[in-house]
């Protein structure tokens, strides 16, 4: 019986590791469905495994690194044989989200993203800074193995870095929102939510597949979703628009027609990046303001109760009287 707790912990760790690895691998296969070519290298505009990896670390803790490494190994082995360069990519893909997690924990990051500082931390530390590791290691290995030319280094590096960062900005918030959901769901504005979903499903495909530049029509929907449904609504809207925009960019349709490969990458990543930043930071600001307002209202209510008791000559609840003093 002494070894039962240890055996149980080992079993839980093995199950969590396998679950994280499968989620990482599934996200990788989804990301590989849409690819762009820049500088002679193939890359994915949005790399969902980075978002999945960071979300797993934030939810499960540092022990999730083993599942991330295993999932990255499965993705790499599905594309190529296990060579020294592949081992380097495995290390970079594992180290980037782990460093992101450690930096976010260092600054007191909260997974509910209810503060502006949490949104800024996820953007600048989790996405833009930590993903420098995976992009630098990956593209550096491509250069060392003569897979790309030296003059293509920065173009490929930028594409890799932005793709990894987009995975964090778009996928991680959605997974964190799903993790915090509790049943039963009490959606008081379900009619408005249904209307927003229907309008989004109609406007977003129109804006993305139109040859006229109508991408700006998506931003009012993001603002509406953030104002009324905060992070969950805005990030789901951003995820839907990003997926459709990526499909249009890889198919060279809509506003991406007649553009060069580099121009397609720049336009797509600028759109995805500004949209994710708008949804994430606006939702964080709104949530922070609402929490502040609730705190002020609660303090005012407590003050009103104290004044009411003092006016009536009673002792406010929770306060000692003179007779109670030692």
From TrEMBL:
The keyword Heme does not apply. It is a multi-pass membrane protein. The chain crosses the membrane at residues 12-32, 52-79, 119-144, 156-176, 196-219, 231-250, 270-287. Keywords: Cell membrane, Membrane, Transmembrane, Transmembrane helix. The keyword Transcription does not apply. Its main location: membrane. Signal peptide: none annotated. One of its GO terms (cellular component) is plasma membrane. InterPro entries: MASE1. It is found in: Cell membrane. It holds the Pfam family MASE1. Residues 18-290 form the MASE1 domain. This is Membrane protein. It comes from Streptomyces humidus.
């Amino acid at each position: 019986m002494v070894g039962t707790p240890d055996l149980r912990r080992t079993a839980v760790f093995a199950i969590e590791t396998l679950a994280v690895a499968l989620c990482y691998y599934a996200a990788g296969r989804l990301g590989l469905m849409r690819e762009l070519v820049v500088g002679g290298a193939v890359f994915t505009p949005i790399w969902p495994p980075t978002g999945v990896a960071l979300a797993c670390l934030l939810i499960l803790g540092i022990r999730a690194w083993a599942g991330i490494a295993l999932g990255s190994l499965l993705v790499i082995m599905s594309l190529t044989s296990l060579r020294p360069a592949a081992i380097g990519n495995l290390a970079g893909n594992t180290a980037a989200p782990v460093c992101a997690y450690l930096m976010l924990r260092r600054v007191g990051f909260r997974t509910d993203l209810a503060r502006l500082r949490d949104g800024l931390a996820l953007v600048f530390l989790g996405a833009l800074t930590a993903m420098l590791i995976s992009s630098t290691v990956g593209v550096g290995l491509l250069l060392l193995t003569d897979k790309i030319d030296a003059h293509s280094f920065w173009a490929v590096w930028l594409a890799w870095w932005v793709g990894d960062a987009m995975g964090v900005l778009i996928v991680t918030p959605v997974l964190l929102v799903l993790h915090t959901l509790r049943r039963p769901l009490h959606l008081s504005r379900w009619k408005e939510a249904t209307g927003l979903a229907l309008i989004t499903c109609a406007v977003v495909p129109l804006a993305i597949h139109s040859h006229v530049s109508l991408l700006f029509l998506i931003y009012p929907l993001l603002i509406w979703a953030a104002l009324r449904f905060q992070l969950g609504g805005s990030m789901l809207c951003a995820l839907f628009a990003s997926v459709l925009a990526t499909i249009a960019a890889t198919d060279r349709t809509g506003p991406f027609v007649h553009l060069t490969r580099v121009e397609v990458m720049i336009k797509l990543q600028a759109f995805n990046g500004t949209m994710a930043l708008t949804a994430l930071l606006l939702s964080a600001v709104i949530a922070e303001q609402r929490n502040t307002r609730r705190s002020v209202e609660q303090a005012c209510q407590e003050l009103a109760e104290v004044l009411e008791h003092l006016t009536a000559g009673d002792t406010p609840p929770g306060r000692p009287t003179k007779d109670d003093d030692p």
